[in-house]
What does this fold into?
Amino acid sequence: MTWWWDLAKPALFALDAERAHEIGLGVLESVHAMPALRRAIAPAHDPILRVEPWPGVVFPNPLGLAAGFDKNARAFEALAALGFGFVEVGTVTPLPQPGNSRPRMFRLPADRALVNRLGFNNDGAEAVAQRLRGPRSAALGVNVGKGMATPLEGAVDDYVRAWQRLAPFADYTVVNVSSPNTPGLRSLQARGELERLVEALCAARAKAAHRPPLLLKIAPELDEDGIAGVADVVKAFALEGVVATNTTVGRAGLRTPAGIVERCGAGGLSGAPLRARALEVLCELRLRLPRPTVIVGVGGIATFADLWERLEAGADLVQAYTGFIYGGPMWPRALLRELAVRLRAQAPAALC
Ligand SMILES: Cc1cc2nc3c(=O)[nH]c(=O)nc-3n(C[C@H](O)[C@H](O)[C@H](O)COP(=O)(O)O)c2cc1C
It folds into this structure.
C-alpha cells in the first residue's frame, strides 16, 4: 500500500459512498485522458498471467473490474493501467436514465460490503459508444440492460438496441438479467423469457459484422433448478459464457448491526458476505457447463485466496468491484503478483 492511499482512504470513506466514487472516477478519468501518464504507471504484464478465454481474444491477465464501476466508459484505460486485465463497462441501457434517487449507495465496513440501488444510472448507449470509438489498449466487456421505464414486454428490444450499438467495440458482451434494482429484471432469468431474449440477441449477432462472445450475468439467488435452466439455455444457443454472480438481495449473517443495515434500505449487497454463495453458484454452473464455456467468477473476491479459490472452482476469469473499493488502487497489482508466483509453482486444481 502506498502512503498516499493511506491518507486518501479515510478522507474518501468519510464521504457519502457515491460521492467518493465520483471523486475517484474523476481522478481516473484524468488519467484515462493522459496516455503518457498511463503508460508510465501501467505494470509490465507477466506473460504467465496471459489468458485466452475465447480463441483469438487475449487478455493480459484473468482479473477484471466488474460491471457498475465504470458504467459510462469514462476511465477504462486508467483502470487497465492499475493492472486489471479487462474492464466491463455498463450496465448501459439504450437511452440515458438517472437511476433511483439518492442516497443509493452505502458502505458496510464491518462486513467489507456495499449496498447499492443505483438502478442503472447511465448515459445511454449512444454516449457510451462515442467514448469507445478510436484506439483502445484495454480488453473491454460491454454489459447491457433494459431501461427502467421500459415494460417487461419491451425488454427484448431494449437489450437488442443497446447490444447492437455497443457490440462493435467489445471483446465480449454481457446480458444483465440479474440486477435487483430494476423491477422485474430478474424474471428474465426464467427459461422461457431467457430463451426469447437470447434468441433475439443471437439473431442480431448473426447479422453483425463483429460478433463478440455473448454471456449471461446471473443472480446468486437462483436455486438449482434456476441454474440448470440457465445452463440449458447457454447450451441450446451455444453461448460463450456466464458471469456469476450479481449482487444479492439477502442480508443474512452480517456483522453490521441490523439497524444500520435496515437504514440502507433495499438494494443489492456485494462484497465479502456474497463470497460463499457466489462460489457455490460457480461450482454448480461448472458441473453443468464444461469448458470451453467460459465462466466469469465474481462476488466477494477480496484476497488472493478468494481469487485462487474461484480459479480452482472452475472460473476462467474473475472480476471484483467491492474488493477494489476497500483494497484501493494498488489492490489489483498485489493480487496479480501473488497469482504469478502461485502459477509458477502449480496450476489451479479442479475442485468442483
Ligand atoms: C455500486 C455497484 C454498482 C453495480 N452496478 C452494476 C451494473 O450496472 N451492472 C452489473 O451487471 N453489475 C453491477 N454491479 C454488480 C457487480 O458487477 C458485481 O457483480 C457484484 O458487486 C459482486 O462483486 P463484488 O462482491 O466483487 O462487488 C454493481 C455493484 C456495485 C457494488
Notes: The domain at 3-345 is CATH 3.20.20.70 (TIM Barrel). Residues 66-68, 71, 90-91, 105, 114, 116, 118, 120, 143, 176, 179, 217, 246-247, 270-271, 274, 298-301, 320-323 surround flavin mononucleotide (CB under 6 Å). The longest strand covers residues 86-92. The chain has one domain: 3-345.
